[in-house]
Amino acid sequence: MQKLKKTMSLIDGLDTQVQKQMEQHLNRLTKPLGSLGVLETLAIKIAGITKNPRPDIDPSVVVVMAADHGVTTEEVSAYPSEVTQQMVCNFLAGGAAINVLSRVSHASVQVVDVGVNGVVQLQGLLNRKVRYGTHNMAQGPAMTREEAVEAIEIGIEVAEEVIEKGARLIALGEMGIGNTTASSAMLAVLGQIPVEQVVGLGTGVDDEGKERKIKVIKRAIEVNSPHPADPVDVLSKVGGLEIAGLVGLVLGAAAARIPVLVDGFITAVAALTAVRMTPDCGHYLIASHQSVEPGHVLVNKLLGLQPLVHFNLRLGEGSGAAVTLPILRSAVRIAHEMATFEQAGVSGSLDELTQRGVDEVAVTVHLPIETRHEFQAHHRQGVYQAIYSRRDVRSFLNHPIEEEKLRRILEAAHHAPSVGFMQPWNFIVVRSQEVKQQLHHVISREVEVAGRYFEGQRALLYPKLKVEGILEAPVTICFTCDPVRDGEHVLGRNTIPETDAYSVVCAIQNLWLAARAEGLGVGWVSFYKKQDIRRILHIPPHIEPIGLLSIGYTDQFQDQPEFETVGWNKRLPIDNLIFKEQWDKQ
Predict the structure, then answer these.
(1) Digit-coded pLDDT (tens) for 42-101
(2) What residues does each domain of the chain span?
């Protein structure tokens, strides 16, 4: 346990300064800005991971964790459990798909026996067996908590060993008949998602087998009651030894600032478990592909990862990771080997370079992006997409917000501008259903009062509007303003005292846009009396509650704001709102 705690304590975020250096270098290369798209994004991410403005991912190693699952006795797989041991022998003989694909991708393969139900003694195998497979999770815990931690620490040790031997990237692989059943159970619990939505065909079971698999997973969850907020508890009760080993690989690699290339569904669930244990290790993950397993789509969404390719793979072993390794290698090679405009002796505007080709142009160069401070095109597009597609959301899915994602959007709020840099905000994060019920009670009262003021068409529309979803949303945040923070006289607030409140509104907008980029809906609740909010949330008298926002996943972001869709109001033409030099002069 000490090794696990120490490793987790070593993990922190990306080096943004090195990322900026990489971005500036890429912008000087002989190409239009941002024209290599995802390759540039990958190069920047890998630079931030490694703290190296000229990173490398070679040597790369695919680590295949292997173990058996007692739940196979429930006939959840199309193959018998003996296949695990047979495939381990195939890996070591170099005859499996992962061996072929790794040879093509110039990566080595390291196989680790962390829980195979049999004795394998072959050259090249790392024998780190915790036990001979897990128990049948449909009848009780798959393993003890101590065994789960032991397997995680084995994964950490394996990561340390391959890194010591020179590995600069670790790709995740696995082998274990029955492990899609375990991974589906873990995802259903960690993501609080219905079992039916996460279960796929796995190794190729038919529809009857799929229904059996769903029933077995539901029984396992009911029998064991794994705690969603305790990832190790979930892992030990309904997980697998190879999944635990993969968790350790992720943690060990992140602690050493080594990129982790995630393969398919099982490895992604392991990565999610690691992220739930230490959110910062999510920065070190790269999703190789999107498999056909339905749960893989969901877990990639929870991780906030965009897969590099969609090849309809469902093999596992690390096969998808091996296939995409050349893409990552291309990203870092571009940064290493492509000439800059200065090195190539090329000058010219970016428009001319795009239209006529580099060889034909020899004119004055326009200001580079680092001088104009523009975002790259795809980054700029993302900002505008967040602005134009943000909606005031009032209907939320019954799905928790990942802690690392909530932290990111709160960090975005905290990076808002504030008058005199006084940072007057605090964020009261409310998850308790009891507290939300109290808030809902006072809000409902004010909603009813507000309806009395409308006449005509709006009086008919008002009862049909859903103006808040505070009980549905998993999180509600109260933004407050401390008017005395940083002293009585704040720079820039002397003549306009309310600028501190405006600063808090800037924080709200930051969070709202960041939430939209993360796929989260936000609803601003404005029906309440401040004294009621102060009383419920124990806010001191001098602190101003500025905004109450409900946050969570939603099933849809409407094309237009709801008020516009139902005919409450229309967006005003912007030309009617732009005055020149003085009021009302167009």
Answers:
(1) 999 999 999 999 999 999 999 999 999 999 999 898 889 999 999 999 999 999 999 999
(2) 56-329, 339-374, 384-576
- CATH code at 56-329: 3.40.50.10210
From the list 23, 147, 153, 317, the catalytic residue is 317
DSSP 8-state secondary structure symbol assigned to residue 548:
E
Is the pLDDT at 246 greater than 70? The verdict is yes
**Can you name the CATH fold of 384-576?**
NADH Oxidase (3.40.109)
- Compute the distance between CA of residue 308 and CA of residue 42 in angstroms, rounded to an integer: 10
CB environment 247-273: b (16+ within 10 A), e (fewer)? bbbbbbbbbbbbbbbbbbbbbbbbbbb
Dihedral pair phi/psi, residue 84, rounded to 5°: -55, -50
Residue 19 phi/psi, 5-degree rounding, is -60, -40
pTM of the model as a whole: 0.62
Number of H helices, E strands in the chain: 24, 10
- 129-to-3, 63, 65, 122 alpha-carbon distances in Å: 18, 15, 10, 14
Measure Cα distances from 303 to 198, 231, 269, 285, 519 in Å.
15, 14, 9, 9, 12
Give yes or no: 404 in active site: no
